[in-house]
Amino acid sequence: MRFQDMARDDLRRRFASMKDEYEQIKARGLKLDMSRGKPGSDQLELSLEILDDVSSKSGAKASDGTDCRNYGLLDGIPECKALFAEMLDVNPDNIIICGNSSLNIMYDFIAQCMTHGSGAGPWMRQGKLKFACPVPGYDRHFTILEYFGIEMVNVPMLADGPDMDFLEELVKDSSVKGMFCVPKYSNPEGKTFSAETVRRIAAMKPAADDFRIIWDNAYCVHDLYDEGDILPDVFKECAKYGSEDRIIEVASTSKISFPGSGVSAIIASDNNIAAIKKRMFVQTIGHDKLNMLRHARYLKDLKGIKEHMKRHADILRPKFAAVLDAFEKELAGKGIAEWNSPRGGYFISLDVLDGCAKRAVELCKNAGVVLTPAGATYPYGRDPHDKNIRIAPTFPPVGELKTAVALLCLCVQIAAAEKLLEE
Length: 423
Ligand code: PLP
Known about the structure:
single chain; Aspartate Aminotransferase, domain 1; Aspartate Aminotransferase, domain 2; 2 domains; three-stranded antiparallel β-sheet; globular
């Protein structure tokens, strides 16, 4: 029954019994962390062989003869470019293989736009700057923008990507310089942009000539099921409208091999690749080629990546199921929560009753379960409805996860009952 439809006395009684249950759980002294989207240690075990692949036995020469132990090749070794090219269905000439973090690439790209611009002079000399931010979204994107003083404008996420009517209006303002987005299995909602959304993004006519979209394809091969979501090729779509320079795509092996010790890549138009290389030449003599070689040798090709990702999915599916089953059993039909059932990626997004997310997360924390802070999925940490909670089910073992989610379900209900009884 919906909490809203319960007689006040019944709700009061329910609230009291839930509080008792909460106190009992609290007394157990739990210490569980579900705050960040990290792979579990069993997932990390899957990639151990990567570490063996450039030993003296196998040699450290790339396919073009480059000795990966030495300086050289600013844009990465050919076999690693080929690997990313196949994974993302792009031309290897439009790829630069970088270091251990795509977030670092994104930060550098924005920094470069600030100081040198993206075609129409340095952004920092252009007065007020704004970015479109599909919400809920990835907190680290917002942190970069906040660091550079770029004002963030919330763009609602619909079922098939950002609200394009809203976005098309917003970009008529020439101070709107770009957008961060996660087009496949978005963080945190696990949504994938539809073909029509991708087409409209390619066809958009922003007032700013130097408008750039950071196409953060962090979860490009991270399917939980054999039939994954299909993200249309944004560069092919842009080619139809002559807007290829608009897209700066990034990806990494962080959630394929080792977060923080993987390989990342930037994918962009000929013009953008040339400009980025010019800056990178100043910035570094080259990235870690031994790690590129290890990854290329171990993963081999798209087939190798897919087989590897299936092993990840086998570990992750029961974790996603544990969360979704608990939500279905404890929260469904009560009028106090909505959630998504993603087919890939790393997160489940839970919307609780307006004004209850902070309280639910606080209750969890006080009973020993740390979640992503409420508000983190919005610019400036401000969720205007205080309702979104990002669930990161990947890191804890299934048993711990079940305990944590049971507590979360209880806290969501307590927070909702508290609010309704106050009204
Ligand atoms: N982009 C998204 C959407 C993420 O969720 C994450 C990590 O959680 C990253 C980027 C970080 O990627 P990297 O490890 O390549 O810096």
